[in-house]
């Protein structure tokens, strides 16, 4: 049975609420604090594992309490952590400050995630048919080597090009089989101004600008509007589900992890997108990122 291999980031999210965020040089008193499991890599690995597929993780955490907790969380969800190295650098951390107007200020410190190296990839053997998943929260050179090895081994490579910062080497873009981006990332990497209500044809045209070789697929996630996939010839649209969203953090991660899992389980891409769209619509009804990912049974119950 093919497996999902995620090379990606692991963060602890420190979520704080306060009446208003501090100005430079100022100290304010906060109201609540909570510690969540996050990082796009971890979120996607958990989302995939909860769909019932074997998942192996490649990443780094510090030799600190946050690192212990992240490893325990991955293992409790059945994710293989033989490829997660411990380092003297701290575990990646996101400090999220939410004020009384629900306005966010966020600092993300990559820390150990910034050290994930090509040599770390040796810990997990890639087999033909495996689904490789990564995001832009570990060094680009490591992702490029991961995908180069994956294509050589006959695996399928899935890149979630998030966050939308800088660009990546051409060799990396060419080694992607399935690229997943949200509307912001699509606009950034395609170099176009996309309105949030852009028509499907405009989204598809922008998505096609990201293709570097025949055989690539670009999936654009469109929030409440669902998702759209384009190949050179075809286009598939999965309409969004109407739900009461309470926290959309990690929605895209849930979608990517669930797509990867369903591809490993033998779905076609349109089938996998249908499943992932339902999974992500469940995730947005719950608070948190890694903690909010639904199980395969929860998704299948809604699809039945
Ligand atoms: P990101 O989290 O990366 O910004 P999106 O906002 O596009 O990504 O969301 C990813 C997926 O999550 C969407 O394709 C959709 O399936 C689902 N989703 C996101 N927001 C909602 C929502 N408010 N209601 C229902 N589904 C949603």
Summarize the structure.
By secondary structure, the chain is an alpha/beta fold. It contains 9 helices and 13 strands. The chain has a single domain, classed as UDP-N-acetylmuramoyl-L-alanine:D-glutamate ligase, CATH 3.40.1190.
Q: Structural class, please?
A: alpha/beta
CATH superfamily: Ribokinase
Enumerate the spans where pLDDT stays under 50 for 5 or more consecutive residues: none
Q: Helix tally?
A: 9
Blueprint of the fold:
Blueprint: E1 4-7, E2 11-18, E3 30-38, H1 40-49, E4 55-62, H2 65-76, E5 79-87, E6 92-98, E7 104-109, E8 131-135, H3 140-153, E9 156-160, H4 170-174, E10 178-182, H5 183-190, H6 200-208, E11 217-221, E12 226-230, E13 235-239, H7 251-264, H8 269-283, H9 296-303
Parallel strand pairs: 1-4, 1-8, 2-6, 4-5, 8-9, 9-10, 10-11
Antiparallel strand pairs: 2-3, 6-7, 11-12, 12-13
Helix pairs in contact: 1-7, 7-8, 8-9
The structure holds adenosine-5'-diphosphate.
Residues 182, 221-224, 226-227, 240-241, 243, 245, 248, 251-252, 255, 277, 280-281, 284 line the site of adenosine-5'-diphosphate.
């Amino acid at each position: 049975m093919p497996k999902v291999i995620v090379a990606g980031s692991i963060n602890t999210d420190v979520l704080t609420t306060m009446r208003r965020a501090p100005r430079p040089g100022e100290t304010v008193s906060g109201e609540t604090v909570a510690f969540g499991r996050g990082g796009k890599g971890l979120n996607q690995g958990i989302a995939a594992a909860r769909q019932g597929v074997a998942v192996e993780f490649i990443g780094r955490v510090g030799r600190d309490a946050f690192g212990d907790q992240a490893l325990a969380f991955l293992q409790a969800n059945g994710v293989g952590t033989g490829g997660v190295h411990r380092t003297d650098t701290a575990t990646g951390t996101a400090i999220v400050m939410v004020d009384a107007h629900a306005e966010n200020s966020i600092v993300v410190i990559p820390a150990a995630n910034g050290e994930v190296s090509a040599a770390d990839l040796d810990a997990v053997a890639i087999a033909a048919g495996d689904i490789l998943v990564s995001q832009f929260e570990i060094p680009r050179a490591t992702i490029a080597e991961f995908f180069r090895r994956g294509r050589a081994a006959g695996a399928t490579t899935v890149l979630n090009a998030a966050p939308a910062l800088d660009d990546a080497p051409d060799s990396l873009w060419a080694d992607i089989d399935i690229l997943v981006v949200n509307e912001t990332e699509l606009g950034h990497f395609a170099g176009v101004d996309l309105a949030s209500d852009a028509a499907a044809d405009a989204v598809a045209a922008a998505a096609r600008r990201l293709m570097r070789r025949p055989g690539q697929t670009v999936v654009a996630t469109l929030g409440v509007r669902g998702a759209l996939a384009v190949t050179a010839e075809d286009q598939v649209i999965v309409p969004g589900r109407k739900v009461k969203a309470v926290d959309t953090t990690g929605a895209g991660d849930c979608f990517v992890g669930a797509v990867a899992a369903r591809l490993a389980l033998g779905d076609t891409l349109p089938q996998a997108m249908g499943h992932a769209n339902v999974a992500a619509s469940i995730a947005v009804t719950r608070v948190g990122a890694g903690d909010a990912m639904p199980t395969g049974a929860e998704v299948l119950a809604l699809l039945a």
